[in-house]
């Protein structure tokens, strides 16, 4: 398993946020920073990668075994086709995309009554896009972007049925579709091609709970259990990009009366298991707002992001060293 960096977890530091006051970092600078931090890859926004020297990046991926993934979006086959061609030219093997539809926080209420038609549209677009991915020799990996539930992601994979289509597991986002992260990963494991490493603190609310970004290993996601699951599932070479959560908390309103109509059928037992997890891992009542939400100065938000990123890198590198050590011991015994 290889640890890399997604630019979207540090949008002030990377110059992606309009309030940062900085120009966006280019692909070469992000790659150089990642190599300096002993990371093994990057996931770059399509527009950032397109402005770079693609042949030089392709050479880097060959010489150093450094992975590059392309962060695209949507299910329009023309747009995703361009992303696939960009990936092939840069040596990237993965094009990550998102379906959308739901509002951030898993809220589908505005599509009640039309969610099924939306999913058919997503399947049709992705099926056409995957034909292009097959021609270019790359894989489209659809993310659980606080929009689609595990049942829907598996349905898409089984419907499209191509080795060039799979999933990007975001380790924190299952909580936005009312699912426990490790169990979610277990359900979609046969289709995982790419990973976003994310963790959250949970703060209860009257309508459900809020998800607040935090460094990896300090929140509710059981990363040792996930690494064990990946190993047992034969996913040792996964690209795993650190993507700390958004600067705005996500409010998951699972207790609202009208939250569920567009979701797959869930049993009372499933909801009870989720709420037990939430209550067991919730933080005490406090000001959960990030520095960005408190309108701190851009330099302060930048420093906050960088501190969380450094902590996250150290945690994941230590965890993988421990996993590798345990594997070596098992092999010896």
TrEMBL record:
Matching Pfam families: AP_endonuc_2
Domain of life assignment: Bacteria
Gene3D superfamilies: Divalent-metal-dependent TIM barrel enzymes
Chain ranges of the Xylose isomerase-like TIM barrel domain: 51-246
InterPro entries in the cross-refs: IolE/XylAMocC-like, Xyl_isomerase-like_sf, Xyl_isomerase-like_TIM-brl
PANTHER family xrefs: BLR5974 PROTEIN, HYDROXYPYRUVATE ISOMERASE
Name of the protein: TIM barrel protein
């Amino acid at each position: 398993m290889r640890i890399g960096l997604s630019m979207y977890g540090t949008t002030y530091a990377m110059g992606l946020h309009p309030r940062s006051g900085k120009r966006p970092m280019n692909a070469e600078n992000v790659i150089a920073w990642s190599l300096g931090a002993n990371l093994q890859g990057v996931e770059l926004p399509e527009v950032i990668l397109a402005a770079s020297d693609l042949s030089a990046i392709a050479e880097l991926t060959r010489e150093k075994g450094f992975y590059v993934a392309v962060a695209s979006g949507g299910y329009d086959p023309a747009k995703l086709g361009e992303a696939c061609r960009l990936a092939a030219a840069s040596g990237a093997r993965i094009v990550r995309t998102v379906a959308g539809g739901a509002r951030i926080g898993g809220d589908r209420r505005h599509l009640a009554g039309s969610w099924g038609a939306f999913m058919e549209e997503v399947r049709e677009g992705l099926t056409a896009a995957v034909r292009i991915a097959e021609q270019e020799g790359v894989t489209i990996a659809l993310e659980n972007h606080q929009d689609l539930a595990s049942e829907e992601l598996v349905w898409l994979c089984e419907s499209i049925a191509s080795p060039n289509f799979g999933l990007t597991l975001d380790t924190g986002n299952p909580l936005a579709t009312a699912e426990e992260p490790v169990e979610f990963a277990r359900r979609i494991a046969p289709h995982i091609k790419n990973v976003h490493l994310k963790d959250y603190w949970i703060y209860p609310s009257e309508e459900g709970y809020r998800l607040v970004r935090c460094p990896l290993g300090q929140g509710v996601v059981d990363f040792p259990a996930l690494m064990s699951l990946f190993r047992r599932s034969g996913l040792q070479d996964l690209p795993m990009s650190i993507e700390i959560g958004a600067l705005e908390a996500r409010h998951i309103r699972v207790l609202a009366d009208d939250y569920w109509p567009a979701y797959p059928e869930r049993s009372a037992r499933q909801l009870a298991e989720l709420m037990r997890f939430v209550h067991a891992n919730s933080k005490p009542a406090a000001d959960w707002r990030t520095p960005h939400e408190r309108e701190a100065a851009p330099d302060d938000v930048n420093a906050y992001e960088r501190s969380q990123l450094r902590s996250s890198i150290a945690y994941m590198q230590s965890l993988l060293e421990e996993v590798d050590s345990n594997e070596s011991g098992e092999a010896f015994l």
